[in-house]
Design a protein that fits this description.
6 strands; 2 domains; alpha+beta; three-stranded antiparallel beta sheet
């Protein structure tokens, strides 16, 4: 082999090595760039998934809030109707026995029942409070605290002595506590 041929061969080999080095460097750079893009894509996917979950939670909270708003929207009107029902109860509780069968009284009782049905149909429930029940500040409002004759006996303390007005609630939310006298 001639010197010139050897020299050309060496130049070709060097050129091939330079190409291999350049290709290797390009591949390394491309691999690094690919890895960075893969990490960025994973971050973007994670962020999108997090936002998607947050949006689903937002929709659930909004739907629940709307249900509550609808559920309790009637509260103000109910609070205005309750005194009317209280007046009906007060007047019908004092009807003389000889007047109870009077058609006029029957009509008044029917109107009272209609009002109570309107409340029931709108999710309003009466808070049951009876004489002798324990006083519960969540459901009862003590209008008067009578001195107990048997206060030495603990079983008579904080008992309802008299129910003055009925209490009402919507689901678990008290809209008006029962007004009671406690001893």
């Amino acid at each position: 082999m001639s010197k010139e041929h050897k020299k050309k061969k060496e130049e070709v080999i060097e050129s091939e090595e330079e190409i291999v080095d350049a290709n290797s460097q390009t591949i390394d750079e491309a691999t690094d760039e690919f890895e960075e893009l893969r990490k960025k894509a994973a971050e973007n996917l994670e962020g999108w998934q997090r936002l998607q979950a947050e949006f689903e939670n937002y929709k659930k909270r909004t739907a629940e809030s709307q249900k509550d708003m609808i559920k309790y929207a009637t509260q103000n009107i109910v609070l205005e109707i309750l005194p009317v029902i209280d007046n009906f109860h007060a007047s019908t509780d004092h009807i003389p026995e000889d007047q109870k069968e009077n058609p006029w009284v029957t009509g008044i009782m029917y109107i009272q029942k209609q009002l109570e049905n309107v409340l029931t149909e709108n999710g309003v429930e009466e808070i049951v409070a009876n004489v002798g029940d324990n006083f519960d500040p969540i459901y009862h409002e003590a209008i008067e605290d009578k001195e107990c004759e048997d206060c030495k006996n603990e079983k008579y303390v904080n008992k309802i002595k008299k129910v003055l007005t009925k209490g009402y609630k919507i689901s678990d939310r008290v809209i008006r506590a029962a007004r009671v006298v406690v001893e």
